[in-house]
Specification:
- It is built from four helices and eight strands.
- The protein is an alpha+beta fold.
- The chain has a single domain, classed as DD-peptidase/beta-lactamase superfamily (Beta-lactamase, 3-Layer(aba) Sandwich), CATH 3.40.710.
- Strands 5-6-7-8 form a four-stranded antiparallel beta sheet, sandwiched between helices. The protein has a two-stranded antiparallel ribbon with strand order 1-2. Strands 3-4 form a two-stranded antiparallel sheet.
- The longest helix has 13 residues.
- The radius of gyration is 18 Å and the shape is globular.
- The N and C termini lie far apart (52 Å).
- The relative contact order is 0.11.
- One of its GO terms (molecular function) is hydrolase activity.
Length: 157
């Protein structure tokens, strides 16, 4: 079967739908957080160099659309994309299928990152508002989602 395609099959006489992602990781939240630390460390985690900073920059370099050829950086790199949900550009990757969702985000602005993973909530986008809130808390930028209304303390900085 071609990755990224969905197919309908029969299961005990009932029609069953199976969707497949284009790729996936079988990973814990802790392990995914290590990936955020890897990006923040520009290829190093806990003093262990895995890739050069230049290789990490290559992963992040936008090349997925026509705008990228003209210097616009808001495009997909190699499994890594900018996410300006809170007004501060975080980078990372997100994905969901059926009722499973995960988000990896990090910013070099203050060296912070986050991992969000959840099961359930099929058809409900809670990952976007939750990621926005986490980004706002990590950077001290007021959250603009109507469900949130969080703003940093005057003593934040």
């Amino acid at each position: 079967m071609t990755p990224g395609r969905a197919r309908t099959t029969r299961c005990n006489g009932a029609r069953a739908y199976r969707a497949e992602t284009a790729g996936s990781l079988v990973i814990s939240a802790h392990e995914l957080a290590q990936l955020a630390r890897f990006y923040i460390g520009r290829g190093s985690v806990d003093g262990q160099r895995i890739l050069t900073p230049e290789s990490v920059a290559r992963i992040e370099r936008a090349e997925s659309n026509l705008g990228a050829t003209f210097g616009f950086s808001n495009a997909y790199g190699l499994g890594n994309t900018p996410m300006a949900d809170s007004g501060i550009t975080f980078r990372g990757h997100n994905g969901s299928i059926d009722s499973f969702t995960s988000v990896l985000g990090y910013t070099l602005r203050n060296g912070s990152g986050y991992v969000l993973m959840a099961n359930g909530g099929e058809g409900v986008d809670f990952a976007g508002p939750a990621a926005h809130l986490i980004q706002s808390c990590q950077t001290g930028v007021a959250c603009t989602f109507a469900c949130c209304r969080w703003s940093p303390s005057p003593h934040w900085r």
